[in-house]
Design goal:
By secondary structure, the chain is of the alpha+beta class. It starts with a helix and ends in a 7-residue tail after the last helix. Strands 5-13-12-6-11 form a 5-stranded mixed β-sheet. Strands 1-2-3-4 form a 4-stranded antiparallel β-sheet. Helices cover 36% and strands 26% of the residues. 34% of the residues are buried.
Length: 374
Amino acid sequence: MSILEIVSKVNMTEETWNESLECHSIIPDKFDGITYYRVVKKVEQLKKGAVVTDSGIIYDFPRIARILHLENGIKLAFNNPFYVEEKIDGYNVRIAKIQDQVLAFTRGSYVCPFSTDRLVDFFDSDSFFKENPDLIVCGEIAGPENPYNGESPPYVTEDISFFAFDIKTKNSDQQISIEKRYKLFDEYQIPSVTRFGRYTSSDIKDLKKQIQGLDEKGCEGLVFKPTDPTEKTVKYVTVGSCLRDMKITSSLMIEYQAEFFTHRMLRSLFYLLEHRSNLDDTFLKKTGEALLQPLFESVKKVAGGEVITERFKVRFNKEQNIKKLFEHFHKCKVDANLIHQEKVGQYWHVEFVRRCFPSYEVIKKHWDGHSHFD
């Protein structure tokens, strides 16, 4: 089917499509000979993050609203039963079959070469998409050996794992029902996030036990999914997750908006008050260390003439996909440099560093004595 026939399914005219290409709201891209189009600015029904292909439209994955007070948030969000699942600390992918290839798309609508390379390790995608060509598996990739995040779930101690949490249909922004989704996950042995079951807003006591248990284990939080389509999905995270977020990012604090940190401080305080914990010296010390210690190390590096870097280790099945990952980084304006690659058993083990010039340049100017207005 032609691209114009595909976009006509969302009532987009040829004129609008061509205008979107001309003004770069929609950008053509290519992976392994397959051309696809990335929506980088909202065009009619298509929001940023959507992907247009000749096999159908992959809608963006919607942002999930967050609640800061568990009990009040649940009571306000749900009048009907809802399902509860674990929120995984990783990065989001949408997996779909385009022409004869199964590809993993990022939130930013790129094909991720690393994630696509590793799909064969997660589930039998060929079998699933042969029988369900119009479905899209949405999930989280998490683990210490990923090319994007510095955090991972405590139970993924090496490499990466995949955790499916939704299934969508091409040319639609809706997920299929939770019950059907679970059935497909089980039928095709697709690894999925932990499912805690079906709850109501009267089950707050049990939900508080679940979140406290996750916090003790070092997990991120919970996602609450409605059975009533008129109600919305919401998420809630542990206090430990807030501290880990601050610790992993504060070395590059200059590159983040202030709200990133203030929001996590607020989440921490709400969690402590609701769950009857105290703002004691131990918590204050952990918070101070999370905010200041990594940033101090960054300043110390710059003062000593070093560039601030982040180091990553990843594994690939195919050597040719290593080069594609660095081409992907170049597209995304990420300054990443290969340090080492070696075949060890089944996988190519790869090490690379990301150079963090924005933080380095700001700190360097201040250290060198330049003045500024604030």
